[in-house]
Specification:
alpha/beta, Alkaline Phosphatase, subunit A, 13 helices, 16 strands
Length: about 450
């Protein structure tokens, strides 16, 4: 027997689907006057609408605990982040596999990124290659390029780090980031007929927009092949890239030529800082929101996202193309500061990604044929615990913007060692064409299918 509260929830859900552009049967709004239990299911409208553009925003290590922590600290327990405002929200599983295809319940960023980049799972540490035979698998970015779309990748990590690497490279091991880093990937070297390091592959792919850190990797010298004797940065320039190193240079970058932005030698320094968690806890603290280690002129993630969108759109218009673009944006150091049990760094990077989400959603409001997806690659360690709790690991007490105290616990590894990922499912939220595909509990590999279907990639 259908209850009135259930009918209200059904109608509200149908309204949310309509807001996202999903076909919904009129019966979903009808009253159940006869009390029938035969309530029609909402149509998911798969394949009903094509997206011109896709913006995928990845919070590395951004599980629900990390989102809740950022929400509580910045906008309050009853507040909502920009990433909370998507009309459709689901969850997906994140496990990787061993070389025989058996589940490895806790993934790293290489295997998880490979999942959505290729639609197939692989072993931890591998970049868009098969788990058993170590063969390259086509990525969503490569398919987008073959179908005439513009492409971009933005990150706060090194551009050669795992999450951006899965889009435009294939490597046996994620450590093979520059020409001098190929020890773990002997068969990937140019001398062996391979594609070279992640940095070399990224620019060889001629991705239209590459923005992030990792300048030191790109300054390494190439020792093999057509570009031997040059640095990877020089290789990029030879291939037509505009190379920029700060916000001023990024602002001046013109459409028509690809852009390589290198804003730090390594990972881009985080926006916020504070005392790391400690055994026995810390004194209550407020986070410092202007990290002195962050060089003046370093563009924020939201600014990079805005510029990337402008460049990708202008590139297609300039070419007279009616096709759109695929853009991935990563807030990388949510994960890195979680590993370091640094709640302030972690919160600041989540807030930075959230501002990029706002930019993406604002773009989609003007371009409703844009699918926007926000998710994480895996869960991580931070937990909000009662103030009176005495965790055996590392903890820190923060004073939120509401003036309340909040205790964060990190206990996925022995104190003194880096904190670890967790195997939990993580949030995925979306708006725009075929956003309904994220509903329910899916798997990470299905995000590849969602994007490929929405863009009708062949």
């Amino acid at each position: 027997m259908g209850s009135r509260p259930y009918r209200r929830r059904l109608a509200w859900g149908a309204a949310a689907l309509l807001a996202a552009g999903v076909a919904v049967p009129a019966a979903a709004f009808a009253s159940d006057a006869g009390g029938s239990s035969d309530v029609p299911a909402l149509s998911t409208g798969h394949g009903a609408k094509k997206a011109k553009n896709v913006i995928l925003l990845i919070g590395d290590g951004m599980g629900d605990s990390e989102i809740t922590l950022a929400r509580d600290y910045t906008v309050g327990a009853a507040g909502r982040l920009n990433m909370d405002k998507f009309p459709l929200t689901g969850a997906y599983t994140t496990y990787s596999v061993d070389k025989n295809g058996k589940p490895d319940y806790v993934t790293d960023s290489a295997a998880s990124g490979t999942g959505w980049a290729t639609g197939r799972k692989t072993v931890n540490g591998r970049i868009s290659k098969t788990p058993g035979t170590d063969k390259a698998m086509p990525t969503i970015l490569e398919l987008a390029q073959k179908n005439g779309l513009a492409t971009g990748s933005v990150t706060t990590a090194e551009l050669t780090d795992a999450t951006p690497a899965v889009l435009a490279s294939h490597a046996t091991d994620r450590s093979c980031q520059g020409p001098a880093d190929m020890k773990a990937c002997p068969d990937d070297t140019v001398a062996k007929g391979g594609p070279g390091s992640i940095a070399e592959q990224s620019v060889n792919h001629k991705v239209d927009v590459l923005l992030g850190g990792g300048k030191a990797r790109f300054d390494q010298k190439i020792t093999e092949g057509a570009f031997a004797g040059r640095t990877v940065t020089q290789q990029a320039q030879k291939l037509g890239y505009q190379v920029v190193t700060d916000g001023k240079g990024l602002k001046a970058a013109k459409p028509g030529k690809p852009v390589l932005g290198l804003f730090a030698d390594g990972n881009v320094p985080v926006e916020w800082t504070g005392k790391a968690a400690a055994q026995g806890g810390t004194e209550p603290q407020r986070c410092v929101t202007n990290n002195p280690e962050r060089k003046a002129g370093t563009p924020e993630l939201a600014d990079q996202t805005r510029k990337a969108l402008q460049l990708l759109e202008a590139k297609q218009k300039g070419a007279g193309s009616k096709k759109g673009f695929f853009l991935q944006v990563e807030g990388a150091s949510i994960d890195k500061r979680d590993h370091a049990a640094d709640p302030c760094g972690q919160i600041g990077e989540t807030a930075a990604l959230d501002r990029a989400v706002k930019v993406a959603r604002a773009y989609a409001a003007e371009h409703p044929d844009t699918l926007v997806v926000t998710t994480a690659d895996h869960g991580h360690t931070s937990q909000i615990v009662p103030l009176e709790a005495t965790p055996p690991g590392l903890s820190s007490t923060l004073v939120t913007n509401e003036g309340r105290q909040l205790k964060v616990n990190y206990s996925t590894n022995t104190p003194g060692k880096p904190q670890e990922h967790t195997g939990t499912e993580v949030r995925i939220a979306a708006q725009g064409p075929q956003a309904e595909r994220v509903l329910g509990v899916t798997d990470q590999t299905e995000l590849f299918t969602t994007i490929r279907s929405a863009l009708a990639l062949r």
